[in-house]
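so the lab meeting is tmrw and i was supposed to have these ready like two days ago... anyway. pasting both below. for each one the top line is the aa sequence and the line under it is the structure tokens. i havent really looked at them closely yet so no promises
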Amino acid sequence: MTAFEVNFDGLIGPSHNYGGLSDGNLASATHAGAVSNPREAALQGLEKMRMMLRSGLVQGVLPPLPRPNFDFLVSAGFGGTDAQIIESAARVAPHLLKAAYSASSMWTANAATVSPSADSADGRLHFTTANLSTMLHRSIEHPDTTATLISLFDNEDHFAVHSALPMHPDFADEGAANHVRLCAEHGAAGVELFVFGRLAGESTLGFPARQSRLASESVIRGHALASNRSVLLRQSVDAIDSGAFHNDVVCVGALDTLFFHELAFDDTKAALAAIRQAADGLFELKPVMVADAEVPISDAIRSYLFNSQLVQMPGEDRLVLIAPTETQEMESTRVFCEKMVSGNGPIGRVEYVDVRQSMHNGGGPACLRLRVVMTEAEINACHQGVLLDEEAIDELQDVVTATYRDRLAPSDLADPKFADECRAAREQLLAVLDLESLA
């Protein structure tokens, strides 16, 4: 069956700021407290979407979540008017106010885990919203994310949207950032890789291992996936402690190609053997491993070489890597990419994009998108307002230019007027996308 890989990018919200909220995310920690530029961030993201659209791909968008999250602040004991809640939180618990304003839903790779209809026993496209329970600021996203996904995929004949797993450490789930699907072609049955950092009940030293094996197993069951086509792999402690807080910081895959760092997995030899066994009869795996001697894992993480989109462009025989400009600016990763594309391997071209505002908070091109393999019937059945064309991108950019600030410091979150700005901006964005029901 013919199917298309649709990239649903997160539209960066007006409260994009450098709060330094993410333990284990080196970029987030490095830029904590710096002044951000929400307008530039959103425009950079929209230009990346435009580039993908002009390449002949189907491009979608997910709107920002409502910020600040007043329900979260009220549950933390703050009351009164909106202005009073913000003023009290800013005075008493500024870290909670930063969490309530977090724009981290822009990284839609963490929105959900997605399994296409070709893989599921019931022939439907499945979504499980990530609970993101490890980090406070992200744990508040899932109710609004689920509501968004239901609005976009509101057709039970084609789609199944599952709520987040239980909010317990044993079920810690970070979504598609720890998930890779491999296949011969998008519409064919494939192999789904689920990468976890720890077992249920297991304690780890160093940076937190955010994905549990139990969470991945639960998603496999919920999506009705074949056990012999689902592979559970353990992420290496070296990768996590080096700053690979999600597997997509050290690994990305598309079609039959897996592009990964030597230190990505706990046991690389066993991981590749398990994938090949699961892929038997479907496709022949093409692994592209980057040796630590060529690109030290510290360089891979700082440049976000692997947090790139690996895509099949129309009319091109080899895959294209959509990498951040930081990959081009770092010598070891630039040299590796030049060597890689000059060979005859499965990746034939690297396209560099500027998403620097996102990168400063620890998110590259791959973080900004949720990959959804869809048949033509499924594309027609989803909410059409979020499938972009040039005119829609222009309209979204006009709203961003008119309503977003070009300078935002963490201290600005204490201004109650900023909450009104965020609400007004989001309402205008939702109007462009025909999603006023989410306002």
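ok protien two:
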Amino acid sequence: MTAFEVNFDGLIGPSHNYGGLSDGNLASATHAGAVSNPREAALQGLEKMRRMIQAGLIQGVLPPLPRPNFDFLVSAGFTGSDAQIIESAARSAPHLLKTAYSASNMWTANAATVSPSADTGDGRLHLTTANLSTMLHRSIEHPDTTATLISVFDDEDCFAVHSALPMHPDFADEGAANHVRLSAEHGAAGVELFVFGRLAGESTTGFPARQSRLASESIVRGHGLDFQRAILARQSAAAINAGAFHNDVVCVGALDTLFFHEMAFEDTDGVLGSIRQAADGLFELKAVMVPRAEVPIEDAIRSYLFNSQLLKTPGDDRLVLVAPIETQEMDSTRLFCEQMVSGNGPIGRVEYVDVRQSMRNGGGPACLRLRVVMTESEIDACHQGVLLDDEVIDELQDVVRASYRDRLAPSDLADPKFADECRAAREQILGVLDLESLA
């Protein structure tokens, strides 16, 4: 069956700021407290989406979530008018105010785990919203994310949207950032790779291992996948403690190709062997491993070489890697990419994109998108307002230029007027996307 990979990018919201809220995310910690530029961030993201359309791909967008999250602040004990709640939180609990304003839902790779209809038992496309329970600022996202996904994928004959797993450490789930689907073609049955950092009930040292094996197993069951074609692999503890807080910081895959760092998995040979066994009769795995002798793990994480989009674009015989410009600026990763594409391997071209505002908070091109493999009928059945063309991108950019600030310091979050700005900007975005029901 013919199917297409549709990338749904998160539109960066007007409250994009460097709050330093993400333990284990080195970029987030490095830039904590810096002045951000929400306008530039959103425009950079939209230009990346435009490039995907110009490359002949289908591109979607998901709107920002409501910020600040007043439900969260009220649950933390703040009362009164919106202005009183913000002023009180800014005075007595600024960390909670930064949490309520977090724009981290822009990284839609963490929004959900997606299994296409070619893999599922009931022949529907399944999405499970990630609970993101490890980090406070992300754990508040899932109710609004689920509502958004239901609005976009609202035809129950085609789609099954599952609510987040239980909010308990044993079920910690980070979405597609720890999931890779491999197949001969997008519409063919495939192998789904689920990467976890710890077992249920297991304690780890160093940076938090955010994905549990139980969460991954639960999604396999909930999506009706065949366990013979669902591989559960353990992420390297050394990679996590080096700053690879999600597997997509050290690994990315597309179609029959897995591109990964030598330190991505605890048992690389075992993982590759399991994939090859599960793929027998479906496709032949093409594994591209980057040796740490050529690209140290520290360089891989600083450059976000693997937090890139790996795409099959019309007119290209080989895959294209869409990498952040930081990958080009680092000697080791640039040289590796040059050598890689000069050979005859599955990756034939590298394109560099500027998403610096996102990168400073720890999210590259791959973080900004949720990959959804869809048939033509499923594309027709989803909400059409979120499928982009140049005209819609122009409209969104007009909203961003008119309503987003070009300078936002953490102290600006204490201004109650900023909450009104965020609300008004989001309402305009929802209007462009015909999603007013989410306002």
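from a quick look at the 2nd one: The mean pLDDT is 95. The domain at 3-67+102-438 is CATH 3.75.10.20 (L-arginine/glycine Amidinotransferase; Chain A). will dig more after coffe
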